[in-house]
Design goal:
This protein is mostly helical and about 150 residues long. About 65% of the residues lie in helices and about 0% in strands. The protein has two domains: about 90 residues, 434 Repressor (Amino-terminal Domain); about 45 residues. The two termini are about 55 Å apart. Helix 1 crosses helix 5, helix 7 crosses helix 8 and helix 8 packs across helix 9.
Length: about 150
């Protein structure tokens, strides 16, 4: 079973269980979108999933647990037990996860920044552009390009 079909089944079940209409849970979207979700015609974003969970008076994680229970043919309790086991085995159950992703620099950008730093350092030591190019095994035009960029920043 696809996750889209499992979501459709879970949403339909939960809405009926809570005795809510499609219109009742269509907060930021229209009723036809809810209908398409329940028919398995559309996928749902995390943001919409969260809004639907709130409209169903559930924690978003509860909604996702039920969706995966449907998808795997298991009970929500079995899914939660599996999640706890997975997190314990990975030493993540009590981990504090940063709330924002770390800013990573693309390797090419990092390499260019390091080259620029070396060029400026050698120039500051009094070497000519030709000497810097020779020492770093790069072209003189590369040295010039980095120096022009260095002066702009």
């Amino acid at each position: 079973m696809s996750i889209r079909t499992a979501f459709a089944s879970a949403l339909q079940f939960l809405r009926a269980h809570r005795k809510l209409s499609q219109k009742d849970i269509a907060i930021q979207t229209d009723q036809s979108y809810i209908s398409r979700l329940e028919a398995g015609e559309n996928s749902v974003s995390l943001e919409i999933s969260q809004e639907l969970a709130e409209a169903l008076r559930l924690d978003p994680m509860s909604l996702l647990t039920i969706v995966y229970a449907v998808e795997r043919g298991q009970s929500p309790r079995e899914i939660l037990s599996r999640i706890q086991d997975d997190l314990e085995l990975s030493n993540l159950l009590d981990a504090k996860i940063p709330s924002s992703p770390a800013q990573t620099v693309h390797p090419v950008v990092a390499e260019a920044a390091e080259l620029k730093r070396k060029i400026i350092e050698l120039m500051d030591e009094g070497h000519s552009q030709a000497e810097v190019a020779r020492r770093l095994d790069i072209s003189k035009s590369t040295v010039t390009k980095h120096l022009k960029k260095g002066r702009k920043t």
